[in-house]
Specification:
Elements (H helix, E strand, L loop, with lengths): L1 H22 L6 E11 L3 E9 L15 E2 L5
Parallel strand pairs: 1-3
Antiparallel strand pairs: 1-2
């Protein structure tokens, strides 16, 4: 459940990012996923982080290079 919720939020963040860039006239699209292992307060999860072609997407839920997310359970 945690994994599905996190991946859905990250996907929605990318959708919003791509809409913002489209409105600015920048052509950008989805470009697959990358794997990231995150340690929460109670478990370890492997997430599929979506990415874009330009590499300008910076997720807000779990930032780049962030490996620990202890407050996720709250």
């Amino acid at each position: 459940l945690k994994k599905a919720l996190s991946e859905r939020i990250l996907s929605a963040e990318l959708d919003e990012h791509l809409q913002d860039e489209t409105s600015e006239g920048i052509a950008n699209r989805r470009n697959g996923h990358s794997k990231k292992t995150v340690v929460t307060g109670t478990s370890k999860m492997t997430l599929s982080i979506p990415r874009d072609r330009a590499g300008s997407f910076d997720p807000k839920l779990i930032a780049k290079y962030q490996r620990r997310f202890p407050d996720f359970d709250d």
